[in-house]
Amino acid sequence: MTESPDAFDAPHDDRAPQHVPAEHEAVEVTPTGHPAIDEALERLERLDDVDLSLHVEEFDAIHGVLRESLANAGRDEVAPESA
After folding, report:
1. C-alpha distances in angstroms, 81 versus 8, 31, 54?
2. DSSP assignment of 8-63
């Protein structure tokens, strides 16, 4: 009889990130060069300063910006600085 592999026994992948940020550890966000996306990322970085009761509204607004940017990718006139 063959035993099923356990997810915790998966082979180690050296390419996987070794550090997982702690719950409140700041993660540095690299600018994308796209103003709307960079502003959305900055809003996420400032989320700890926003009253908890406003988080859902803030996430919804940020998600809207990211969805719109993705929907218009390649069609808008904004080109990332790195391009």
Report:
1. 42, 10, 32
2. GGPPP-TTS-S----TT---PPPP-S-HHHHHHHHHHHTGGGS-GGGHHHHHHHHH
Q: Which pTM does this prediction carry? A: 0.58
Encoding tokens for residue 46? Answer: 């400032």
Which pLDDT score, from 0 to 100, does residue 41 have?
94
Helix axes 35-45, 55-71, angle to 10 degrees: 160
Cβ-contact 35, 43 below 8 angstroms: no
**C-alpha angle 61/56/65, rounded to 5°?**
15
Average pLDDT for consecutive 10-residue bins of the chain (83 residues)?
54 61 69 93 91 95 95 74 52
